[in-house]
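Re-run with default settings, no changes from the original entry. Doing this only to confirm the output is reproducible before filing.
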Amino acid sequence: MNMFIYAGVLMLIVGRCGAAELRTGAPSESGTLPGVSAHSDTVLNGGCVGVRCGDGVPGARHKNSVTKAIRLAGTAESGDQRTAESDRVPSTGSDWVAGVNYELISPAKATAAPAGKVEVMEVFWLGCPQCYGLEPYVLKWLKTKPSYIDFVRVPVMWAPVTRAHARLFYTLDALGRDDLVESAFSALHVLEVQKGSEYVMWGKSDGMTFRLQSVWAEENGVSSELFRKAYDSPIVEEDLRQAADVTERYRVKYVPFFIVNGKYGANVGEAGGPERLMSLIGYLAGSEHQRR
């Protein structure tokens, strides 16, 4: 087989964290899934997708606002939200092409962005290796994004392992320890490299998952008792329910899935690389801002 063709196929196989990759298999006692290799973040430019999140990231909206946005999304499938595609596609002479570089979300969803703001939502997975590789690009973008962009992040809820990592994220948020989200993201990446699997800090039972995450939390200054209270709290349960609603409503198949103003979906592969992805998001958000 031609080596260039082989390389291209390989990029497509390992270039994203996708829901289809999580449908089978069971974790071992150590919390890893035998035979599943962690993808290298060196294939980022080949179409890897994903990034970690947290309210501790500059510019990210608080999760309570995210919950409101998710609830409102369910009311957007009628009336003026059924916008004609010709009215939704930016047409300012850009080289971005709808259906090629980004997708049109139909019907468009309502957002809870404050007046004058344009929502950019990122759906992510803490355990995605490609998410870890994309993080520097997102952080750089957050430092320079226009003030009219209202940035929110929601963890994907495909399967037991993604739900476990989402619970960890929301538990840290409930504890007010957003500073530890960055540490959790790095810790998961290190474990993935060590074990050769994305199925880390997760066990074959809820009890095992809690113990694995609780040990990590204690190592980072959070008592097991406080971690347990937040872990099982109603607010975390509600956050998880709302995140599951986002995953289903937007039919999220890979991470990260960037959603601009409830109308456009974008990812690294279709955008043409991480830097182009951030430029595309800025372009789409800017186009929406000009329409207001």
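The chain is about 45% helix and 10% strand. The two ends are 52 Å apart (CA to CA).
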